[in-house]
Amino acid sequence: MADAIITELKNDHRVIVSLMEGVGASLKENQFSVVINDYKRIESVLVAHIKKEDQSLYPQLLSTAKEKNLLIVLSAIDMAIISMKVRG
Description:
The protein is an all-alpha fold.
């Protein structure tokens, strides 16, 4: 299960990079409607990506860290959770 979510998240990263590269090319060619559509797609992919992290990745990391008593990982997860709450 963990491998599947990591593969999915890495794929999301590749999609975002590709879309950002497309935005750069479209800006150079003054294709602003394409840029707007690409940004909407990027937003959609990022929102889905964050949900995957929140619903699958972080709970799995937390569970494994507790199971193996990985204090540094637990601390990092706690700091990430605090950071997300501060940002809203």
